[in-house]
Amino acid sequence: MTITSYAQNFEDVILWRALGHIPNGMYVDVGAQHPVVDSVSKAFYEQGWRGVHIEPVPAYAALLREDRPDETVLQLALSDQPGLLDLNVIAGTGLSTGVKAYASAHSSEHGFTAEVIKVPMLPMSVALASLNGQQVHWLKIDVEGLEEQVLLGWDSKVLRPWVIVIEATVPLSQELGYAKADSVLVDAGYEFAYFDGLNRFYTAAEHRDLADKLRLPPNVFDAAELSGSASNLWCRGLLARHRQAQETRAEELAALRTRITALE
Q1: Cα(183)–Cα(206) distance, rounded to whole angstroms?
Q2: Coil, strand or helix: which one is 75?
Q3: DSSP run (H or E) holding 51
Q4: What distance in Å separates the CA atoms of residue 34 and residue 203, rounded to the nearest whole number?
Q5: CA distance 216 to 165
Q6: Spatial separation of the C-alpha atoms in residues 158 and 129, rounded to whole Å
Q7: Distance CA 214, CA 235 (A)
Q8: The dihedral of CA 80, 85, 86, 92: what is its sign?
Q9: Alpha carbons 37 and 5: distance in angstroms, whole number
Q10: Are 229 and 40 in contact (CB under 8 A)?
Q11: Strand partners, 160
Q12: Are residues 68 and 44 in contact, defined by beta-carbon separation less than 8 angstroms?
């Protein structure tokens, strides 16, 4: 079955290879951001899967509700304790963060501006209590530096996603920053399967048979096509070529109409 990939780094292609045989599966997307652009869940949604989105940025939460009216969207942040989080919102990007140092670096090094808003914050065990006892097939955590805190608020005995995908680098860099989150996952009975340059993929020990499906990069045997909507260079190049082709055809059509008019 061919799927359309929307994710930034083909995370959806890799997950589909391991889990695509499951009909009407369930996912949890923590730091879901946009419902289409760079979405890990969109390809699964189109194949009949449904899930829960955690997204504290108001604009993205609204877009998710509009695009996915039959799914749950929780407009809050996850951490190891309840409270309020000072969220540095960098509009129109996936860089909004609760880590002030990262927001400052994004401003000084890349020219991004942030608006600080307060958002409710809950442990995962509380926010996702309705899923206790249900089969969750994958969980993605991309929270721009707070991955460890999210995992510390998780009860791994009652919520055990088959596969967990977690961002493993410091935002906007290739510097690795996953050691503490890795320790929590290993202690919870999860095993490392694959690193894609941005994320680390883990399988629950009871589903380690899926690891072989996760250990390869996206390839020609995955039967996946680009959506053209992802933010990566592959999609930007695809869109640029498409726009150029449209402009060329429009120019050719205009020239043809001019010649026809001259002959009349």
Answers
A1: 18
A2: coil
A3: strand 50-54
A4: 26
A5: 15
A6: 9
A7: 23
A8: positive
A9: 10
A10: no
A11: none
A12: no
CA dist 157 and 154 (Å) reads: 9
Element (H, E) at 123: strand 115-123
Strands 138-141 and 83-89: unpaired
30's CB contacts (< 8 A; 6+ apart) are 54, 78, 124, 139, 140, 141, 142, 143, 150
| Tens-binned pLDDT, residue by residue, of the chain (264 aa) | 789 999 999 999 999 999 999 999 999 999 999 999 999 999 999 999 999 999 999 999 999 999 999 999 999 999 999 999 999 999 988 889 988 898 898 889 889 999 999 999 999 999 999 999 899 999 999 998 899 999 999 999 999 999 999 999 998 889 999 999 999 999 999 999 999 999 999 999 999 999 999 999 999 999 888 887 766 666 566 656 656 777 777 777 777 778 778 776
Pairing of strands 72-74, 115-123: unpaired
Residue 214, token pair as written in the block: 């996760």
Q: Hey, what are 246's tokens?
A: 């449209």
- What span, in angstroms and rounded, lies between the C-alpha atoms of 219 and 28? 25
Indicate the helix (H) or strand (E) that contains 224. strand 224-226
| Contact criterion met (CB below 8 Å) for 205 and 189 | yes
Q: Tell me the two tokens of residue 170.
A: 């410091």
CB 11 within 8 A of CB 40: yes
256 Cβ contact partners less than 8 Å away, ≥ 6 residues apart: none
